[in-house]
Amino acid sequence: MREENDSAARRLALDTVTSRRAMLCGLAGAGALGALSACSGCGRAALDLDPERPLAAVSDVPVGGGLVVDDEVVVVQPVEGEFAAFDARCTHENGIVQAPDSEGLMVCPRHYSKFDIEGSVVSGPADSGLKAVEVSVADGEVFPAA
Ligand code: FES
Description:
By secondary structure, the chain is α+β, with helices and mostly antiparallel strands. It contains one helix and ten strands. It has one helix spanning 2-39; strands at 56-57, 65-69, 73-79, 82-87, 106-107, 114-115, 121-123, 132-133, 135-138, 141-144.
């Protein structure tokens, strides 16, 4: 009976060590992921947009709202006939912001920063506005500026 108890105690100790190792490895992995995500907001490459390729048809961009194109650019129409665009990557850690809601707010789904329809930060954690993309309108379409 005593040998069975000793054996059970050894197995328990071994399981505990194994579990602690697994947990420590998990924490190390989580730490590495944390470091990666913390770095994801730096070193942002500029968008490479083709000025010959329209971002959107004017008729597809709602007045007071906008749309996200290819998870790259948000095209907005704050007032009828006036268009603007922004890099859709959140300035916090590159989440792709959503198209403006009924209040003209663009929300990043990662940590819920909010930007107004002019790209300015309304609430963080982002601490700077969306990067503007110059656009022009021709033939009923919105183009990135050359
Ligand atoms: S990536 Fe963190 S709020 Fe957008």
